[in-house]
Amino acid sequence: AERLKVRPPMVGRLGSDGRFYLFFGAGLELDLCRLVYGQHLVKETLVDTIRDFTENPSPRKPLVLSFHGWSGTGKSYVTSLLVKSLHRDGMKSRYVHQFVPTLHFPHASHIQVYKDDLKRWITGNLSECGRSVFIFDEMDKMHPGLIDAIKPFLGNSHVMFGTNYRKAMFIFVSNAGGDQINQLVLDFWKDRKDREDIKLADLESKLSAAVFNSQSSGFWNSDIINEELVDRFVPFLPLKRKHVGECVRSELLSRGLSLGLGGDLIEEVVNAMSYFPEEHKLFSKTGCKTVAAKLDFYL
């Protein structure tokens, strides 16, 4: 029998005109609370940012987000949850467009062709839907200079290339800046500070500088960074053992398996992961990325 999907409660406010306005971030907030572990900055930043942007009937510019952190910390997963909160079909929506450098822009010698293609692609899709979402994955593998082709779409001009684009959303996903994030979390631990006391302000400038100055970053010397066109640099913190355990529990439930299988199984999977720094083994080197494969082995 087909499972019934339980819709999250509608959250909104009553406008001065007497109409009820939905908070687009309501479903996202619920998903982040239930499904994402160890990322308080992500939850605090995204819900308010998405809500403010989607409620604004006339934003001055598109929303530009840049996600940073080591592999397995949830960047792609959170991107999918965010997109699902905006478009019913999520990542499969015709209004959501994902670019992967190694797939879509493999040859450094073709950068000018890629730039022209990107401009045409974005213009065409924004003409069809002003709320289109453009995702640029693996930005640390993007050829430097290529991403600046989309700079005209990210500013505050009302119309560009004959298209009103201010309600669009651009999301950049990158491992760049992960070392800076991990070092700050480690410093907090050494100083016996709670990681939940880390603020966005502690990391945003570090991430901006890291991607701008790194020659292995698609944002190296980028005008997009230099002209401060990114609205939020969102850091994904390294995951502790307890967060990996929560991922294992979530994976068991997603497979329809009972948690009555015992804590020993969860502990085995948690212990099978690799951790850093070597002397303390505090944080998972791959986040939760290999949890499913490890669980397959132990099952």
TrEMBL record:
GO cellular component entries: endoplasmic reticulum lumen; nuclear envelope
InterPro entries (alphabetical): ClpA/B, P-loop_NTPase, TOR1A_C, Torsin, Torsin_1/2
Organism for this UniProt entry: Callorhinchus milii (Ghost shark)
Gene: LOC103184618
The protein, known as: Torsin-2A
Domain Torsin-1A C-terminal: 241-298
Lineage top rank: taxon: Eukaryota
Keywords, ordered alphabetically: ATP-binding, Endoplasmic reticulum, Glycoprotein, Nucleotide-binding, Signal
PANTHER family given in the database record: TORSIN, TORSIN-2A
Record family assignment: Belongs to the ClpA/ClpB family. Torsin subfamily.
Compartments where located: Endoplasmic reticulum lumen
Recorded GO MF terms: ATP binding; ATP hydrolysis activity
Binding site for ATP: G69, W70, S71, G72, T73, G74, K75, S76
